[in-house]
Amino acid sequence: MPTAPAVVLLSGGLDSTTALAICQRDGLEACAMTFRYGQRHQHEVNAALAIAQRFGVTRRVVVDIDLRTFGGSALTSDLAVPKHASDEEIGPEIPITYVPARNTIFLSFALAWAETLGARDIYLGVNALDYSGYPDCRPEYIAAFQQMADLATKAGVEGQGVRIHAPLIHWTKAQIIAEGSRLGVDYGLTTSCYDPSPEGLACGACDSCLLRKRGFRDSGVADPTRYQLRS
Predict the structure, then answer these.
(1) H helix intervals, the chain
(2) What is the pTM of this model?
(3) What is the CATH code for 5-219?
(4) Would you list the domain boundaries of the chain?
(5) 106-127 pLDDT, tens digit each
(6) Residue 5: helix, strand or coil by DSSP?
């Protein structure tokens, strides 16, 4: 029997790549959706395409939207990306790297593609434990979007709606890395840094780099990330 399609939001990062591996483990055909949304660099788009190829994903799209039009985030403007000496300095406040409504925009595109594909599942790698405090990574947000999806689509009204899967949402970075490693994920292909060098080397000091470092350290898995040399 043909494998049922599922849309995977693939950013090129550690979490979304693990979500892709879980989608395939679940026996579904992963269809990868990546966004070029005006972010600071092209490295994550290139990483997503390389990851999709490594996983044998044949249906993949890169969607162009320009969130720089609105700004409001260090990832879509010239605002400085915050840096820290250690992950212990990451505070509880929502940081300037939050992109307003980003996951709502991305999920809406994924929902539209899922309907045209006849897909009943969407996977994304949001996480509410080792993360930067973004409001659109919380379980209650995913539940609310699921309700909206059931109401807003032809498939949902006809009882054939799309299920939103956030399999990593209650996992630590260490648990994510351990499971991804078990599934054969090559994390050397992934990129997490908010402010990489022009060559794609990770800064090692932004929130995302620090959480990634801690995840590899706590999981006992060797960190394959290429970091910039820091004085």
Answers:
(1) 14-25, 43-54, 102-117, 139-152, 154-157, 173-182, 207-219
(2) 0.94
(3) 3.40.50.620
(4) 5-219
(5) 999 999 999 999 999 999 999 9
(6) strand
